[in-house]
Amino acid sequence: MAVITIFSRGETKEVTLKARGQAISTAVDVAEITRRKFIKNLRVEHVNLGTEEMPNQEGGTRSVSTIEITLTKSF
Amino acid sequence: MAVITIFSRGETKEVTLKARGQAISTAVDVAEITRRKFIKNLRVEHVNLGTEEMPNQEGGTRSVSTIEITLTKSF
Question: Chain B contacts of A50, Cβ < 8 Å?
Answer without folding.
Answer: 32
